[in-house]
Amino acid sequence: MADLYSTLGIARGADDAAIKKAYRKLAKELHPDRNQENPKAAERFAEVTSAYDLLSDKDKRAQYDRGEIDENGNPKMPYGFGGAGGPQGGFRHGQGGAQFEFGDADLGDIFSGIFGGGRAQGRSPGGNFGGFGGRARKGADIGYRLQVPFEDAAALKPQRITLSSGKTIDLKLPAGVETGTQMRLSNQGEEGPGGTGDAIVTIEVRPHRFFQRDGDDVRLDLPITLGEAVKGGAVKVPTVEGAVMLTVPAGSTSGKTLRLKGRGFHKKGGGRGDQLVTLMIDIPADDAALKSFAETWHGGGNPRASLGV
Predict the structure, then answer these.
(1) Which helix (H) or strand (E) holds 47?
(2) Which of 2, 42, 113, 124 has its CA 20 to 30 A from that of 203?
(3) Its pTM surpasses 0.70
């Protein structure tokens, strides 16, 4: 894999906001749902997501910048030590909508033994590991990618995932969940002499066909008729948890935004965002009665007066 910063098209000194912005732009362009006939786009999407996962983690990014880990998040071998490392796996489809990868085992315990770490534990029958007397390595972590419907992410509906072991788990999504959020499942990874690794689930929130996320809020452009705009009244509006009735004030114009309290995403610190509904007046193209009315109506004044024209 290329340099992670180059993968996202950003400079090394980029802040968290720039990293997130670059990732969201590329993820939108490369999403597999939008590039079903282009397998290279799917590969690039996986690379971009992997780069974002590492760079959005403050500790891992610092290790990467210091050259302590590589682009896959694996420890780099000290000069003159060992070969190219253990096997590395790529993404492949798993059950339950997840994708998973098999990464290298954590070499931290080995390095600890080399450079004067504590007393070795869990040694092999020969009394040491690789001739250095380090502790037995823990099993590798297994990474999964889980696609979550937009509405489920907003409402924090549990998501079912099937692990590579065949075990099925219902995940409880955390408040503030978004694309790139990682969840760690202890002892659900690969088995090893020093213990079992973890399963790390990276969430991908699917885009919605008419809802848009704005921080913790949800935005919706709502078409209404001219009659509903002029006379006002209650109209049915979709939300992430089902349709509700919304009162449109009489004399509303296109672009007017109404607020539905507590209909957005759950916030990390508690509470919930809102749904912001922007009214869009729909004018039929061929309505004889409306055309006749417009030809005889001379009201309305100059709606562009505030623009100086």
Answers:
(1) helix 39-55
(2) 2
(3) no
